Amino acid sequence: MSKEQINGDRLSEAIARKVMGERLSNEQEQAVDSWLEDPQNRELFTRLINEATFKADYIQMERSSRRVKDVLNEKLSGRMETRRSTPPRFWRTWPYLAAAAILAAVVGVYMWNKGGVAIPAAEDQMAAITPGSDKATLTLGNGQTIVLDGADSGHLADQGRASIRQKGGALQYDDVHHNYEVVYNQLSTPRGGKYIVTLSDNSKLYLNAATKVRYPSSFTGKIREIQLIEGEIYLEVQRNERLPFVVKVASPPSNNPMEVTVLGTRFNIQAYPSETSVKTTLIEGKVQVTKGASKTIMAPLQQVSVDKSNDMLQVTDRVEADTVIDWTMDRFVFNDDRLSTVMRKISLWYDVDVEFIDDPTIDAQNRTTGATGTLLRTAGLKQILGILKTAGVKYEVKDRKIIVYI
Q1: Which CATH class is domain 133-322?
Q2: Domain boundaries defined on the chain
Q3: How much is the pTM?
Q4: How many Å apart are CA 339 and CA 337, to the nearest integer?
């Protein structure tokens, strides 16, 4: 067995087996011992053992070692990535978040089924809040609405010259009819929802939670134009130099929409009503952002922010793309992000409200330093909040509201 193999998924499996008290081979023992030579890893492992031992008094384990191994491998990869950079840490240090994520993966294969165990009301509330999923509402040109989910429903409707199909959490628009009528559709995702649309030109449009987009069923004329009413989208635009692709972004209170013009590229636009600015992040290619008389040409990994209060454009170079388009990969990725950013993402995806309350007992430095790391959006809210708690975040849950003390 190579060193690379034992440091990958086999190491994950070995650590999981060690935490669960299972017998290891000599080679696995040596690999775990080597991993434990790092003081942070040793402290991480001690936390896992203590927590797993404590919970074992109340729960009966149902093994799912493959899942444990897979999730551990995911989190160990994040742990190793974290060690390569040392930005300011939020709470204590982000490796503890990775530790808690591993713990959650291990404990997640247990079943709370021992008779007579009383689970606190807050635990019940958190367990009932599941992660978001593929769901949206499609509004056709005649006002008819169709509720969408992750099912394979096949043909849904005809709009103009396009046939609309639904398959596995995605819509597909195909130009198949000899009809030149322009019909506009609107796709809306709720909080806790996401969806993907392949437009009639084969450009791919991703909608994050709480997003509304209006677009034609087929593109005609000299430009391809869609409108982001609110929310966040990610676009992979099919290149066509003869037909520029334009995204108009509503940005109240100004009456002048922001415009993003492209030929072929990948980029993200965030335009939530609660945010003070509209952010366009270019991943690949070249786009032009226009707001009133101001305009700028963007290069890859630049971000342009348009201030809603004065329509001023601000350009940021070398943004961390993973923290912007993490939602398209079902992840939360943070890079020196404040707690407000962390909780905003959680709020949107789990459809919960968040309230911050000042707590004089908490170190003021924790309010300004950042968090760095990766978590899976497929985890339940209980698991995510458990990670935050292990990292030192003080909170309580009331119905669908998370009260965070800062």
Answers
A1: mainly beta
A2: 3-128, 133-322, 327-405
A3: 0.71
A4: 7
